[in-house]
């Protein structure tokens, strides 16, 4: 079993809740708008990280971070990007990649809106963890945690907290 913490849109700020909620995960997936190489370095000192860059990221210092990442974990094929969309409203460039990837779980960010839903037409679970940084339209910060085992996702949990640490 592999436990995964999913986050997005830190925009240069890692809230303390990340360390609490992700303390027992094996891997962190960051869905972009990291904010700085310092954030990525801080997270990598805590846990292994699979990250993509977002539309607000300066590529300086994020040399090993790509626009799209693919992995197979516990037999589950995943695809990660920043700007993804949701069923019937995918970004046109990503839709083509989704059709080719045939993933089981699609992780994306950008919207600052938590969304977990099954796309029955494309046959995958979409997970957008919302935003956990302070910048943006979101009123609450959110994180997602789940486990992958035997080619399945299970035990999906959400943490919601005040983005200004109240």
Tell me about the biggest sheet? 5 strands, mixed
The top-level CATH class is Alpha Beta
**Name of the CATH architecture:** 4-Layer Sandwich
User: Tell me, what's the shape?
Assistant: globular
The secondary-structure element order is EHEHEEEHEEEEE
Low-confidence stretches: none
Estimate the mean pLDDT confidence: 94
Strand content is 35-45%
End-to-end distance: 34 Å
The structural class is alpha/beta
Task: Summarize the amount of helix as a percent range.
Answer: 10-25%
CATH topology title: Purple Acid Phosphatase, chain A, domain 2
CATH homologous superfamily heading: Metallo-dependent phosphatases
Number of helices: 3
How many β-strand stretches? Answer: 10
Across the major sheet, the strand order is 3-2-1-9-10
Rg is 14 Å
Number of domains: 1
Please characterize this protein's 3D structure.
The protein is an alpha/beta fold and 166 residues long. It has one domain (2-162): Purple Acid Phosphatase, chain A, domain 2. 16% of the residues lie in helices and 39% in strands. The longest helix has 10 residues, at 37-46.
What's a concise summary of this model?
With about 170 residues, the chain is α/β, with parallel strands linked by helices. The protein has three helices and ten strands.
Task: Spell out the blueprint of helices and strands.
Layout: E1 2-7, H1 16-21, E2 27-30, H2 37-46, E3 49-51, E4 68-73, E5 76-83, H3 92-101, E6 105-109, E7 114-119, E8 124-129, E9 140-149, E10 152-162
Parallel strand pairs: 1-2, 2-3, 5-6, 6-8
Antiparallel strand pairs: 1-9, 4-5, 7-8, 9-10
């Amino acid at each position: 079993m592999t436990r995964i913490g999913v986050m997005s849109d830190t925009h240069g700020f890692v809230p303390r809740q990340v360390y609490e909620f992700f303390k027992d995960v094996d891997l962190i997936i960051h869905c972009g708008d990291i904010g700085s190489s310092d954030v990525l370095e801080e997270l990598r000192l805590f846990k292994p990280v699979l990250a993509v860059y977002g539309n607000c990221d300066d590529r300086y210092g994020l040399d090993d971070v790509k626009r799209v990442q693919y992995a197979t974990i516990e037999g589950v094929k995943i695809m990660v990007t920043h700007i993804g969309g949701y069923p019937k409203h995918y970004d046109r460039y990503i839709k083509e990649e989704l059709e080719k990837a045939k993933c089981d779980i699609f992780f994306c960010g950008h919207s600052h809106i938590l969304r977990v839903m099954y796309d029955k037409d494309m046959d995958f679970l979409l997970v957008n963890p919302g935003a956990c940084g302070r910048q943006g339209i979101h009123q609450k910060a959110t994180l997602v945690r789940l486990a992958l085992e035997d080619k399945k996702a299970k035990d999906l949990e959400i943490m919601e907290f005040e983005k200004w640490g109240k």
